[in-house]
Fold:
Amino acid sequence: MQAQFVFANQPWTLQECIDRAKTANLTIRQKQLAIQQANIALKTAQCQRLPSLSGSVHEGYNMGLSPSVSGVYSQSNASAANLSVSLSLPLFTGFRIRNGIISAKCDLNASKADKEQALQDMVIDVMAAYLQVLLDKELTRSAQEQVRLSSKQADKAQRMIQVGKLSRSELYDSQAQLAKDSASLIKLQTDQQLAVIDLTQLLQFERSTDFDISASGIDTVCVLPDNADILYSTALNGYPAIRSAQYRIDKAKADIGVARAGYWPTIDLLAGYYNGYYFYYNLEDGAKNTSFSKQFYQNQQQVIGATLSVPIFSRLDVKHKVQTATLNMQQQELALETAKLTFYKTIQQICCRAVAAKGRLHSLQKEEEASQIAYEAVLEKFEVGKANAFEVNEKQTALAKAVSERIQAKYDYLFACKTLELYVK
Structure:
C-alpha cells in the first residue's frame, strides 16, 4: 500500500495526520453524505413551485354497450383510444412551499454545522492520540535510561562484592531494581504500541506497522486567556454545535408554518388537453366509422381553470400537527441551551486544566532538578561506601517518578493549549 511506503520513509507531522483524517475518517464521510441528502431535500422543496405535467394514453375494447365521444352509449362493440395531457400549477398553498424551502435550507445549514463540529471533534481526537504517542515515546526513552542506570548500578554492585565492599543482599536490591525497571519499560513499550494503533485507526490505516510520528511543529508556547468567560463569549458564535442548534430552531419555526398551512385554502391552476379515437365494429348497413384524422380534429378538448380547496374539518389533524411542531421547536430551544452550557463547561475545564498543568509543570521541573542532584549525591556516597544500594535505588526511583510526572504534565499542558487554540480560531 502507498501509505505503508510513506510510513517507511518519513514520520508524520500532526498537521499531516489531521489532513489525512479529514478525508478518510468515516464519521466525516457520513456527515458529508448527510449534507448531500439535505441538499437534495432543499432542491425537492424548491421544485414544489414548479408545475406538474403528466400525460396518458389509453386503449380499450368494449363489448356490448360502448361509449362515444359525446358520452352517448350504443349497443355496439367498439375500441377506443384516448390521449390526455394535464398540467397543474400551485398558485397559493397557505405558505406551505415557502416555509418548506426555509425548513430545508435550515436543515442543510445545520448539516454543514454538524460536519464542522465532527471535524473539530475529530481534530481533538487526533491531537489527543498524537500527543499520547509522543508522551509514551518520551516515557519509554526515560524508562530505557532508568534501565541503563539500574543495569550499570547492578554491575557496579557485583564488582564491589567481589572486592568485599558490599554485602550480597545489596546486590539483590540492585538486581530487584533492575527487574522492576525492565518490567516498567516493557509496559511503556506496550502502551506506546497501543497508542500508535489508536492513532492509525483514527486515520483509517489498515496497519500500524512502520508508522511513526514527528514532534516537529508542536509549539510548546501557549498564551493562556486571562478570563475563561471572555474566551467563551469570543468562541461561542463560531462553535459549530451552537450554530447547528440555532439552525434547528429556525427549521422548527418553519415547520410550524408548514403545519399551519393546513388551515389555509389552496388554489391551483389546471390545464388539460384530451382527445380520442373510436372505432365501431357492428355498424348498421351504410354507416361508416369517421376517419382518424377527422376524429382527431373533432374530438380534441382543451381545458383551463382553477381549483379552490377550502379545509373545513380535518379531524383536528392540522391542530395536532401544529402542536407537535411547536413542541419540537421547544425541544430545539432546550437543545441550544444545553449546547451552550456544555460548551461553557468545556471552556472552563480546559482553561482550568491548562493553568493547573502549567503550574504543575513548573513545580515538577524543579522537583526533577532536585531529585537529579539528590541521586547524584547518593551515588557518590555509594561509590565510597557511605551509602547502601537501597538508598541509591530509593533516590533513583524518586528521580524516575519526577521525570515521569514532569513529562505527563508537559503533555497535559500541550493538549490544553492545542484545544484552546482550536476554539479561538
